[in-house]
Amino acid sequence: MAHFNPWHDVERGDDAPKVVNGIIEIPKGSKGKYELDKTSGLLKLDRVLFSAVHYPAAYGFIPKTYCDDNDPLDILVLCSVDIVPMCLVEAKVIGVMQMIDGDEEDDKIIAVAAHDISVNHFNDIADLPPHTLNEMQRFFEDYKALEHKHVSVERFMGREDAYRIIEQSIKLYNETFPNGSATEQTTKSTGVEL
Prior knowledge:
Blueprint: H1 6-9, E1 19-26, E2 32-36, E3 43-48, E4 58-61, E5 74-78, E6 88-101, E7 104-113, H2 130-146, E8 151-158, H3 159-176, H4 183-190
Parallel strand pairs: 5-7
Antiparallel strand pairs: 1-4, 1-6, 2-3, 4-5, 6-7, 6-8
Keywords: Cytoplasm, Hydrolase, Magnesium, Metal-binding
Organism: Hymenobacter canadensis
Binding site for Mg(2+) 2: 74
């Protein structure tokens, strides 16, 4: 029996890469790290952050994208209200935070909720208050350091770079999963059973 998987069965958005669907896993302010269980399509608690830090924005992924870390492309969505986990949000892409996690590149798309008038006037990462970017950088570097992992935020880049990264992740998804989410296909092409 086929089951619904948010990664493979939700569209990435008609206006991608400018406006994408973000599927939120973690609400802003959470100390719980939730993530999509790739097999069941349910949300699971991966771990509780053992520090005073908490997520600076809603955090999730863009469906039907794929990156070198074997996961969909991450997205941080700024919004004036808490977005609950597994909520689908139309997100206007404004930039990207490029990180190195261990030895792997780990891009985080930065977006604003398209239907939130308190943030949707931001069109590029340069429009954000500087403390917003500092908060994002500190969060990712600090919580990893407390887990004895090294992460460095290399740079923040604007929306054109973010569009390019999204397009690359769409291309990689289409090459890796030519038949969508068929488990057999996934195992064959990546060695990873989803």
